[in-house]
UniProtKB/TrEMBL annotation:
Gene3D superfamilies: Tetratricopeptide repeat domain. SMART domains: TPR. PANTHER family: TETRATRICOPEPTIDE REPEAT PROTEIN 1. This is FKBPL protein. It comes from the Eukaryota. InterPro entries: TPR-like_helical_dom_sf (IPR011990), TPR_domain_protein (IPR052769), TPR_rpt (IPR019734). The gene is Fkbpl.
Length: 132
């Protein structure tokens, strides 16, 4: 429930991990821990309504751990919040390929597809008026 406080703690932990980890490439364990911190911070930022920083942190987590499904899912949520529906759908499909039972990804993909259909219908109506 204390999302802002959690975000501060994740940011502090990331600063400490950067200071302790040195320059890349990081050892496997350190990379995994840092990826988890970035993904946790991304979740806090999503809950705070900050999709751009959330996407950036999810991307950093995926750079460190490309197979990290929750980071990919959080990047998809951030992309959807920023109305980048194609990127969101691609990430959600990737999550579902790896974990078909991921209920959140399935639900969000339905929502993203619906939003894309609505967007396309609005565009078609506008173009129809333009050329009518």
């Amino acid at each position: 429930g204390a999302t802002e406080a959690a975000a501060r703690v994740y940011a502090q932990a990331l600063r400490a991990a950067v200071a302790a980890g040195g320059v890349p490439p990081l050892p496997a364990g350190a990379g995994r821990r840092k990826a988890e911190l970035h993904a946790g911070l991304a979740l806090c930022q999503l809950r705070l309504g900050l999709p751009a920083p959330a996407a950036a942190n999810a991307e950093k987590a995926l750079t460190l751990q490309p197979a990290y499904l929750e980071a990919r899912y959080r990047r998809a949520l951030a992309a959807a919040a920023m109305r980048d529906l194609e990127t969101a759908a691609a990430d959600l499909r990737a999550v579902l390929r790896e974990e078909p039972a991921h209920a959140g990804a399935r639900r969000e993909l339905r929502r993203v597809r619906g939003a894309a259909r609505e967007r396309d219908a609005r565009l078609a109506r506008r173009l129809g008026r333009l050329f009518a």
